[in-house]
Amino acid sequence: MKRERKPEAGSFIFQGVDLRREFENMLKLPVVRTYLWETPTLKVRHGKYTGCSGMANYTKKTVTVTIRGQATLARVLEVMLHEVVHFAAFKQHHNDVFIARLNRAAHEHWGIRVERLSEVKSAHRTLGAHRGRKAYQVDRLLTELLSGKFFRAASYKWLMRSA
Ligand SMILES: [Zn+2]
Question: Is the overall model pTM greater than 0.90, yes or no?
Answer without folding.
Answer: no
